[in-house]
Fold each of these.
Amino acid sequence: MQTGIAGYGVYAPMNRITVDEIAGVWGEDGVSKSRGLNVFEKSVPDPDEDTITISVEAARIAMKMSRLAREKIGAVYVGSESHPFAVYPSAVHVAEALGVTPHVTAADLEFACKAGTAGMQMVFGLVAGNIIDAGIAIGADTSQGRPGDPLEYTAGAGGAAFVIGKDNLVAELEGTYSFTTDTPDFWRREGAMYPSHGSRFTGAPAYFRHVINAANGLMEKLGLTINDFDRASFHQPNGAFPLKAAKILGLPLEKIEDSLAVKYIGNTYSGASIVGFARQLDLAKPGERILLVSYGSGAGSDAFSFIVTDAIEDARKHGVPVDKMISRKRYINYATYARYRGKIRMK
Amino acid sequence: MEKIVIASASMTKFTDHYDKDIRHLASEVIASTTLPLNLSPKDIDALVIGSMASQLFTRQGNLGALIAQENYMYNASAFTVEAGEASGQAAVRAAYSLIKSGMHDYALVVGVEKVTDVLKLPKLQSIVGYVNMDSRYEVDMGLTLASMYAMMAKAHMKKFGTKREQIASVAVKNHFHGSLNPLAQYRNKLSVEKVLSSEIVASPLTLFDTCAAADGAAALLITTESKAKELTDEYVEIKASTLAHSPVRLADRENLYSIPSIKLAAEKAYEMANVTPDKIDVVEVHDSYTITEIIALEELGLFKRGEAGKATEEKQTYFNSSIPVNTSGGMKARGYPFGAAGVAQLVELYLQLLSKAGDRQVKDAELGLAQAVAGTGGTSVVHILSTV
């Protein structure tokens, strides 16, 4: 049975703070930072936004594009590292808001930035196993950046949702492969506000090792080479890592450049690779093959190969382009950002 | 008196060895230094570790016993020598003394440092400061080593008219040499523009005037000439081994543009080796910062005071020029895992004197000098090596 994506949607909060604005607060050179990170600004959620609200917005768009009846949805999974509750899943809020309860299975996932794609694999499994007709997998985050830490420049908010099933497909799943190890490059203890990370250790032994191995493993499994792909989206903690990974794999930069939403909305963590993937879907032509490789610290990468169908051009009319979410913005300063993100000591 | 010689020398690559602990780095270099000689671990009766701050960087002290045991050197008298950033060469001096005194037959010097477990730069700066400067009157008061050298650079520029571009050309040269050294941490070439446009660390010094964090190890086997001959045909003589100190606190010195301890150690070394500066064929100086190399060259008597900047800019210190300086790439490009780096300076001289320096070989190198300094100049160590 051919499974695939029937609809997709992206949501990013409207507020933006520039790398330059943040750099000014810490006495650093914003121009130099932007150049090094290949990131210019990031999105900031309003005080009344969170992973749940972002997930609902993205999922609504995906549902509308899929044209599937609510009754067809049999699963809702939300992957995030900023679930509002440690116990009380974001997924049930989303399921209720979408009107797909009660005949549905739901759960929250965590695997740093690849929780969303892990959820996608689970839904693909349920559909392929004929347990459900369709399901929704979401990756969304409102992660916090520790003030003065390098990650503060890129920790953005946003998410992407995918309706996965066997009908009305805009992209068919050709295959998926994952590469997972115990690599503690980035972590957050229960109750801690900000994560800890291993600085340069997050590069070669973490991001690159897993992304490259997952991509190669997928290609070997499917009998493909890098030249068989027309577009790609990798996890984007900044705008530089994906380009470096592309270079290592021998993927021409123009095939990945369009995925780099990170330059304008920052790293949306569980949303990162899949927001980029959604943007590629916005631009893809029928028949194109797209490579998606996520990366989650801890660590692991999920790689997917999708083939875009003829139905996509019509289906896109029922969605909301990722660029609309990116370009719809208003700038805030660091003080407002600190207030919105609860960084000001009130007592 | 029997000649004291270096019978074997090797080093690991200097880089972020995220998968290796300090003990692994030491074991790796011990193997590469002793195995070619067919020397059994039980024959080594002295192990001198040169490590600046293992207790603070990687929470491990007592390295002598740890490394000796891990490498089956059960007969070795093992301990660590610390002299701030000069720990590596200070350890060589200790090992040299053990052999010269006749108390030991084979002294293995292992310089080793595991720095990259310290993730945050402020913590790294703090450790380096406390270990090398005056903790109460300098570091606790907010001074860092970078800011001290920035002041020394400004003083040198004001006193002698040394130009910013001349200071930057030290980094350019050392990176060029690094590009010729397979074990160097950085093998990319730099330009003066690139150095000047990088982020300011402590004005006028920018990021490329300073050294990056690195892990690594380097080792030498020191013994008498007669014992060396039983093991190998290739060895170099240690003709001088000296150590001197001057006020640790920069404020206690006469001026900000000189480092008296280097001159003191060098003068004693030239006397001990019975040579003059003009006889030196190849030099390894301690370029913790670019300005440090310029001041060191002047203190070593290789250039007149105030002229080393211009000489570097005029390319007089390249490997194929009149006075080859830091052909290894220096602390800047070869890499700077503190204790290991000091020993690595002697590894470079060993390679040059035995014509094993590959693409960066200095022609007819017979006499080499290595200089180390701690902090802004508290301790300085000088070694002079020669072919036999």
Amino acid sequence: MNAFRQLLKRDVMLTFREGGAVGTALGFYVMVITLLPLGIGPDLNLLARIAPGLLWVALMLAALLSLGRLFETDLEDGSLDVLATAGLPLEAVAAVKCLAHWLGTAVPLVIMAPVLGLLLNLPLDAYLPLVMSMLVGTPAVSFVGGIGAALTLKARRGGMLIALLMLPLFVPTLIFGIETVAGAVVDSGAFWPSFLILSAISLASIVLAPLAIAAALRLQVQ
Amino acid sequence: MHQASPPAQTFTQRFANPTRFMALSAKLLPWIAAAAVLLIAIGLVMGLQAPVDYQQGHTAKIMYVHVPAAWLSMAGYSLIAISSFGLLVFRHPLADVSAKAAAPIGAAFTLLCLVTGSLWGKPMWGAFWVWDPRLTSVLILFFLYMGLIALRSAIEDEALASKLTAILALVGIVILPVIKFSVEWNSLHQPASVMRLGAPKIHPSLLWPLLVMALGLTMAFIAMHMKGMQNEILRRRVKALRAAEVQQAAGYAAPQAAV
């Protein structure tokens, strides 16, 4: 457990200190949300209606940007080989990496989302459900995205490929994330079913994704 | 390894030998291909002669291509998933060949399903594409196929590419039901009417051509898959021979380089 905590601390610190990965993701998020109203037009009613969807989709794209580097730096400097031969099982290493991505990238993006909601005229009663749905749904993005990062580790043009591989797999998270917000705005009774399914998707990916990631890493670390 | 008699081989082990597969498939392939052509021809004639739908007119006949394509798009992905499982768990030598050959064929049938669906949708729904849940999940299935093909082509080491693609296929088969469930909260489509408990809801005069077409296109899928596997095995043999040739040439060159 101590190794788990140490590795998590190292990875979160690396995300914040190395190369400004968080800053890039946040900047991308802000830029996409700024460009969309320019493309769609400044109709505030329309923007309010589609705001949850725009915020969710842009958040996924921003998270994807940083996912490509999840294992790459560790493979390049050899620390992935050390981790693979160290005491911690590779599944646990994979889980730590994804958890660190969630803490270091996804959570800052979620914190940024309500601020961007102001730009999109998000209805007042949608803020809390939006943040809750994102907090609960983004672990699925980080963990399922980790599978893509592990699969494309040695691929050419990995960055574009990871989007092609992973975006279809994000569909359930996206749909129930938005259903949660819509359910809360239209009728507060519809909030819970979608919210609970979203939680189930996240929990399932936290359990299952490390198995796939470890299997993929084992093939590439020798 | 010194047993007097080898243990009885299971069905799949017996076909693990690529040479045996090549011999067997060479014998079977003409028959399957002929059956496919015959069944599709009969099915098309039956389908065109089937009673015209009183609401949809002749456009309903798109069904005879659309429905089998939809079923084959899912069968193709299942085949890839089973082959991937065979590769990762049993290291079956033909499993990877099968998974690789099935991907473009399955993708083609998925595309066929999407195209016929949107051609059918234009007169029925007034648009080539509506964000109907079932359309959406077929589109996502198409993206999953594209992902498999793209991942395999992006990794240079072929053995590694096979295994990573197999992992992706298995991840896909786990998530696919979740995607279908999440997309199909409420659907424009009619509920399943052929494969359901009790008598089929569709009239026999329409059902028979559909079944013949489904069988014919399935035969076509099998024939193409078999041919694809043969080609892949031959391609690998050529590659191995070339590698051996290069190695031999390098063997002659190496002492000179050392001097």
